[in-house]
């Protein structure tokens, strides 16, 4: 899978969809078009809320498109009042998937009858990482994406496939229980509106996914995560993804308001920086979006905006047993039920 | 390939070789034994020279072994007078290689006649990364390793294979031409003692290997690199690896002595930190030793000691054309002949 080189644009287009695909008013009811509209609204809302809370930093915007259709909007606030680095990106990609990848995504590995040739696909998503300065204010990541395949060219009758994926997870350097509970409570409330099995299932999926295997620890205190989700009604999953994305602000900003001015010392800052090092390790070694993006030649600066402004690696650092640093590490090694 | 869990040791053993394999005096003339002796001498010499030049920092030593044979000595100097982080490790590994990896290493992919089953192997190496504090003092990396396979158990007549690999490369944040020339001149002189084709060939190999593909740039200004080298006399390659390892001090320390106290400002420091970020990207995403070590469960703290103490990622940072920062970046994108 390789992706065309992107071209910078001076203005945000109305849509990144191909003309044949939803740019016409008549096609604006497709899931593709509605998902793009949703993620662009969420991008605007989150960026406005972050700027207001930051009280100084402004987002810098880069718009880009690809000759064959698709493109994106990257927004980054750097060295603000509250956030060290905050990136909120949306993108729309038209690509072609090798049959193996299609089968793997469909969970039909080894079944060579599933599709005969390369499969054109469509993907749209919002992706964001917010790294605050204060060691008591947590890092937040969220990502919601929609994926669709066209009918394969040499098998026009084959069914189109679609999936939703995404999640919201948070990564404090210190455990403040009321913050962790608030964050997970919002995730659970959002999930419970749709299916009571969602929160427990997606909470565990999150703990399993954000696992730094070589360390035997997770990068943070989790949240929710799901991928390749298509075994529910498509409208229900679109509404669920929308609700999850819209719950980012109430889940996160109240915590930031409380912690952005907490006094801290050099030791707190050094520990935050060590945890940022773990964030880098997870993203560069394991994160599917990042490793896939680096391999396929996506827009590098948009992909790597998830990396913190600064990070630290000390040889063989071991927090003292029972310390606040140790408690955080313990919760990353042994995920807890917070609710 | 998975590696046994290591056990800490209180004392350095005379050798990490298996008793049957070279621990006896009579076997001390094997290449395995001589290579282990060489890398342990070089570790002592380099650590002594670094401590002397640092004028304050001391190496912390960790010794470890594995139940089935093999082990290592990790030495790390952190937050010294001159170096931010300096790691010098030796290790000896006994493992078992899947047939595919063996064929790949032998350059016999697809030739299933080459070997019938898993292949026991022996590997010994020295590996070091030295990150100074001063932005005008370059980072140095060197690594020399020797690799041998046993005869496969189910084909005792099959030939044993051996290879040498390694290199020395350096990574300044700023180009000081006399330093770059000095560094490359020492590499060339060392190579020329053995074969006039070595320097040009291994200099190019180094430029090709330390390539951050997603950036289209190298991590630094190169040096020499070679891998899977077995098409020369084994004694000659042992002598060549030894000479390369022994030339680290004369290639590097005179540069450090000149640059360790160069005055610098915040902008110089920030640029050094951005280049350290690239170092992290290369090591976690591309470096074979690191990615292999993370996957096989080697000793994580020894593997990741190559990461800098601190690193930085700014969104879409572009040095001003013609600036000193731009010149360094240009030389990383377009490798130059320095001699």
Q: What would you say this structure looks like, in words?
A:
Two copies of one chain form a homodimer. Chain A has helices at 31-54, 99-106, 177-192, 198-209, 234-246, 248-259, 266-285, 288-296, 300-303, 324-333; strands at 7-9, 60-65, 70-78, 83-97, 119-132, 139-149, 162-171, 211-212, 217-218, 223-229, 310-312. The first copy, chain A, has 339 residues and is α+β, with helices and mostly antiparallel strands. Chain A has an eight-stranded antiparallel sheet. In chain A, a hairpin with a 6-residue loop joins strand 5 and strand 6. The longest helix of chain A has 24 residues, at 31-54. Chain A is globular, with a radius of gyration of 20 Å. The A-B interface holds A 60, 62, 76, 78, 85, 87, 213-215, 273, 277, 280-281, 284-285, 291, 294-295, 297, 300-301, 303-305, 307-316 and B 60, 62, 76, 78, 85, 87, 213-215, 273, 277, 280-281, 284-285, 291, 294-295, 297, 300-301, 303-305, 307-316.
Secondary structure layout plus pairing:
The structure is a homodimer of 339-residue chains.
Chain A: E1 7-9, H1 31-54, E2 60-65, E3 70-78, E4 83-97, H2 99-106, E5 119-132, E6 139-149, E7 162-171, H3 177-192, H4 198-209, E8 211-212, E9 217-218, E10 223-229, H5 234-246, H6 248-259, H7 266-285, H8 288-296, H9 300-303, E11 310-312, H10 324-333
Antiparallel strand pairs in A: 1-2, 2-3, 3-4, 4-5, 5-6, 6-7, 7-10, 8-9
Helix pairs in contact in A: 1-5, 1-6, 3-6
Search tags:
homodimer, 339 residues, alpha+beta, 8-stranded antiparallel sheet, two-stranded antiparallel sheet, 10 helices, 38% helix, globular
